[in-house]
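Re: weekly structure request thread

Next one in the queue (70 aa):
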Amino acid sequence: MDKQAQTAFDKMQKREHSLRVLRDQMGLGRITREVFREESLKVIERFRLSDDEQRAYDLHSKVQEQRKRK
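Done, posted below.
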C-alpha cells in the first residue's frame, strides 16, 4: 500500500472513531442533537480526504476487489 492510501485509511479511521465517540456522547445525553450535528460536521471537514488520497484509496480498493474475484 502506498503512502497516500495509508494516509487515507488513517484519516478514515480517525473520522469514524471521532463520530462514534460523538454518537456515544449523544446517546448518553452528554450532548444535544444540535451540538452533535455541529461537531460531526467539524469532524468530517477535519478528516476530509484530499483528491490524491481519494484516488489512492479508490485504486487500492479496486485492486483489492480484483484480487478477491480471482
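The chain has one domain: 3-69. The mean pLDDT is 95.
Next request, please.
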